[in-house]
TrEMBL record:
Protein source organism: Oceanobacillus limi
Regions annotated as coiled coil: 31-65
Positions of transmembrane segments: 79-99
Domain of life of the organism encoding this protein: Bacteria
Keywords: Coiled coil, Membrane, Transmembrane, Transmembrane helix
Protein name: Uncharacterized protein
Length: 100
């Protein structure tokens, strides 16, 4: 090979190295972008998990409050039914003597 062919081969090698370097730089930028996006995604996932935990806690408290409310309503109805039965039984002799 003469000097001109060596120069041309070296120029081609340099051209390929520039392309490889450019491609490597582009890939590095893409990886940095992906890393940044992944970090943001992790942060958003952590935030979403915190909000979900708060929502679950609130739902559990509401369930307990509702159960307590239902139990209090049942107790109140029992008292009302008991009072009405007691009054009805107390009035039964009076009504029996009035209508008989």
């Amino acid at each position: 090979m003469d000097e001109k062919e060596y120069a041309q081969t070296i120029a081609e090698i340099r051209e390929w190295l520039v392309k490889i370097d450019t491609n490597q730089t582009h890939q590095t930028n893409l990886l940095e972008t992906i890393n940044t996006q992944a970090t943001n995604a992790f942060a958003k996932a952590d935030n979403a998990e915190d909000k979900a935990d708060k929502a679950l806690s609130l739902a559990q408290r509401n369930e307990e409050n509702f159960d307590n409310y239902v139990e209090n309503e049942r107790t109140g109805r029992r008292w009302l039914i008991g009072i009405l039965i007691t009054i009805g039984l107390a009035l039964l002799p009076i009504m029996n003597s009035f209508y008989m």
